[in-house]
Amino acid sequence: MVTQTEKLNSLITDYFEKEQKLGAQLPEWMKELRQQGLSRFNELGIPTIKNEEWKYTNLSSLAERKFYIPEPQPFKELGELHEYLDPAEINVVFVNGDFHPKLSNLTDLPKGVSIVNLTTASAPGIQPFETHIREYQQKFSDPFAALNDAITHGGVLVKIDEKTVLKRLIHIVHVTCVPKENAILSPRTLIVLGKSAQAEVLETYMSCTPVGYFTNALTDIFLEENSVLRYTKAQNEGRQAYHIGTTRIFQKRDSLSENFSMTTGGMLTRNNLMIILENSGANTFLNGLYAVQGEQHVDNHTCVDHQAPNATSNQYYKGILNGNSHAVFNGKIFVKRIAQQTNSYQLNKNLLLGKGARVDTKPQLEIFADDVKCTHGATIGQLNEDELFYLETRGIHRELAVRMLCRGFVDDILNRISNPSVVAKLNKMLAPSFETFK
Amino acid sequence: MLAIKNLHAEINGTPIIKGMNLTINPGEIHAIMGPNGSGKSTLAKIIAGHPDYQVTEGSIEYEVNFKKINLLELQPEERAREGIFLAFQYPVEIPGVNTSVFLRAAFNAICRHQGAEEMDPIEFDEYLKSKMKFLDMDEKCLNRPVNVDFSGGEKKRNEILQMAVLNPRLAVLDETDSGLDIDSLRVVADGVNRLKRKDNAILVITHYQRLLNYIVPDFVHILIDGKIVRSEGKELALKVEEKGYDWLAQ
Ligand SMILES: Nc1ncnc2c1ncn2[C@@H]1O[C@H](COP(=O)(O)OP(=O)(O)O)[C@@H](O)[C@H]1O
Ligand SMILES: [Mg+2]
Question: pTM above the 0.95 mark?
Answer without folding.
Answer: no
